Amino acid sequence: MTQSSIPTSPVQRQRTLPLSKAVEIAWKSIRMRLSRSLLVTSAIVLALAFLMSILTSEAVIRGLRTWINSGGDSIAAQKLEAKMKSKGVPTTPEEIANWLQRDYEKWVRIRRETGIRIE
């Protein structure tokens, strides 16, 4: 396409949509598609709640581990460590590394058994 074949008509004056009209159109659209809007909104809220619960529990466990490691030989730290271990929560760096290794091996085995390929 050459420069001369492109039409060079000037852009006409465009109308602007008032904000009140834009809000009115958006509100009508939401009302008309209320069920879809509620579904999407609830999915976003649930996803955020799930993410926050995971992040919060990880932060609490990290804080407890730090307190146990800095607590020395206090009775409370020993009790907490015993309770965490009884629930299967790794407390030392070695236990965390072993847990991660077991988890990795489990997922590799599942991938092999199901034929899932990650590339």
Task: Encode the helix/strand succession as letters.
Answer: HHHH
Structural class by sheet pairing and helices:
mainly alpha
Counted by DSSP, the helix tally is 4
Report the principal-axis shape: elongated
Strand count, sense and closure of the main sheet? none
Tally of separate domains: 2
Number of E strands? 0
Mean pLDDT: 85
| Gyration radius, rounded | 29 Å
Question: Which band does the percent of strand residues land in?
Answer: under 5%
What does this protein structure show overall?
By secondary structure, this protein is an all-alpha fold. It has two domains: 19-87, no CATH class; 89-119. Helix content is 71%, strand content 0%. The protein contains four helices and no strands. It has helices at 19-32, 34-70, 75-86, 93-114. Helix 2 packs across helix 3. It is elongated, with a radius of gyration of 29 Å. The two termini are 42 Å apart. The mean pLDDT is 85.
Please outline the helices and strands:
Blueprint: H1 19-32, H2 34-70, H3 75-86, H4 93-114
Helix pairs in contact: 2-3
